[in-house]
Amino acid sequence: KNERKERIRAHRRGGPGVRTAGRRRRNTMREGGVARLTRHLRGSTTGVAAGMRTPAAGHFNVALARSGPSLRCWTPAACNAPAPLLTALSRGFLRVGHRGASTTTASTTNDSVELADEVAKQGLVVKAAKERAKELGESPNAYARDEIAKLLELKAKLEAIGCADGKKDKKKAESLEGGGGEGKKDAPAQGNTSSLEELKRVRIEKASALREIAEGTQSPTSTAGFMPFAYSFDRSDYCEGLQERYSGLGAGEDDEGGDMVSVCGRVTNKRVFGKLAFVTIQDVTGTIQLQLSKGDLPKRQDADGVEVGSEDCFGSLTFAEMKKLLDLGDIVGGKGTVRKTDKGELSVKCTNFVVLTKALVPLPDKYHGLKDQELRYRRREVDLLASGHEGMARRALLARARVMRTMRDHLHHCGFVEVETPVLHKQAGGADARPFTTHHNALDKGLTLRIATELHLKRLVVGGLERVYEIGKVFRNEGISTRHNPEFTSIEVYQAYADYGDMMKLTEDLIRESARQVLALILREEPSSDGVAAALQGLEYQGNTLNLKEPFRRITMTQSVLDKTGVDPFQVWTEGRGAEPVLEALRRQARVPVSEQDAVEIQAACASGPGHALGCLFELYVEEDLIQPTFVTDLPLALSPLAKPHRTEPEKYAERFELFVCGRELANAFSELTDPIDQRKRFERQVQSHVEKRKALKEMDSSDLEDLDYEIEIDEEFVSSLEYGMPPTAGMGLGVDRLIMMLVDAPSIRDVIGFPLLK
What we know:
Blueprint: H1 2-12, H2 21-30, H3 33-42, E1 51-54, E2 58-65, E3 68-73, H4 83-91, H5 110-136, H6 140-143, H7 145-160, H8 170-179, H9 196-217, H10 239-245, E4 261-273, E5 276-282, E6 287-293, H11 319-325, E7 331-340, E8 346-357, H12 373-378, H13 380-387, H14 392-413, E9 417-418, E10 424-425, E11 437-440, E12 445-449, H15 454-462, E13 467-475, E14 487-496, H16 500-523, H17 530-537, E15 539-541, E16 544-546, E17 553-556, H18 557-565, H19 569-572, H20 580-589, H21 596-606, H22 610-622, E18 630-633, E19 656-661, E20 664-671, H23 676-699, H24 716-722, E21 729-735, H25 736-744
Parallel strand pairs: 6-8, 9-13, 17-18
Antiparallel strand pairs: 1-2, 2-3, 4-5, 4-7, 5-6, 7-8, 10-12, 11-12, 13-14, 14-21, 15-16, 18-19, 19-20, 20-21
């Protein structure tokens, strides 16, 4: 006991106390990297701040701060510190400054410290996962594959900001240790190395190094392009194609044929094990692993060595150059044979490896993605990189392409012709919406962006094109919400010698076939498979299960309002009494609550007649409850200035339907009005109704008046075209963006638009 006490006293005095290797190992297992360095400095096994003297480092004070550990040297000149300490200094784990100095000589930002903490925490997660795998009797590496991948990703980021440990810091530590800092021009620059600008500067230097290598080994017309920003690359296969073709290879087996393949893509993972490295790349189809070894890649020992610019080597990087210059996010190309590793991972064993594009900024964290929702919309390219192949952004864009192609194929099969109509109009027409206005300088004329494609398409039907459609952008200067965007995509279809019943069938077929194709894309199955059929019958959208397989429900607007409120405005509305009879009937039935805001909207609608009142009640109380696909038919004639009067009740209703899914209007169609005299009267009534509604809102000093602050004009050219005679025609318009929202389960219309309009 006395001897043990003497050793402890010797340690506390800074003497050469002795500790057994076993105790050192046990304490090393319990301590973190910073604690071990601190213990090495001051001979203590704890993390408590203390002032001690060591033979190599002089007098130090170590303090663990909230933002990270810090160390202050009390000697007036630079200390001849041990290598582990200097390694930590170069990594940014410790901050060092002389007593009395106003600034520190080495620092790092909170980002690097936090990232180091994440690495340590993730290491514990990996360890726990492997222990769990052993308990379950499974392979530890296979069981903890995702955790290990995340750990490697974090380590790569730590390396990118100058916080890599191990051999890469050895030379830096030795250079500092050897000469006390005097005359060492290659010492690492200290400061905010984790900032984006610093990272960009480092990567620009790497790009310059790649350019120098390329100048001596490549020509701009080589098959590899020209590093670091190539012109092209001769790719033989996509990642997914190789995965499918060589799925039969067993673990540890090589392709017997030895066929050479060339692949390219963006680097998403990089692991180096001595003279062997594995690089994961991702292309538009999927991912594959590149196996890079020092023995397989060309060696450039001197100017008279291997001719790397030859056909066989096409300017490949050496293994050392790859380790030094390759970063996550770089776009690379590799050529070699195919094999499976001992762990069963399909790999391309590269004999040639080039950087096609050098990424100057790091990739976003693919595990956490972009947290800022507005940044996701504003920087869609970054969102795509962060979310990967399974993200909402990529899924929505691919679904949009599939829907467009499906609609075009279906309509082409039905004999329709795709056309284009003007975006700039003399006056807004085809819908009742506030337009965007602009001015044509050469013509000195005010114009509007189109709010619908309807009127020009009908004029083409008059001209003899019996079946036409257009998929295009439409612009409405109205509110922005999860369901509305000022710029959106619609499809409008017009078929001669048909009515709104025919349009119901066509609309249902288009939606069902589009859904089938998108589900096949998501599930990676054939459209006719049982899995797609089951998904079609149980499509999930925002917590609702939709059935698109069965025929869509049909109900008249009057019946839907009557079922919900117990009121039919056509029965209770009275000329000259405004909204009073309708409001009294609603309160008497007491099926729905009528708020003050509801009463204001009903009053404004009743000023224009019972048809507008019916439409208002439907929007307030019925629309949001229509979850399953529902055709709401026979809308009020007053709300349908371009539709034919209903055959049985022409004074009240029009032959028109709207399709609703999950409380949202998805499509709108009707039997088109072909009588030019009636059409002019309808337009005149629409203009008058708009004026009366604005007047009513102005008298009530309503904030909704701003939404109607635009003029409606009669399109004389369209009315004139009807006088030449238009065949019986049915037309339909469908919101493509809302359809894609439903198919990919997107909560907002901005999620399915590539670059939505933002403030």
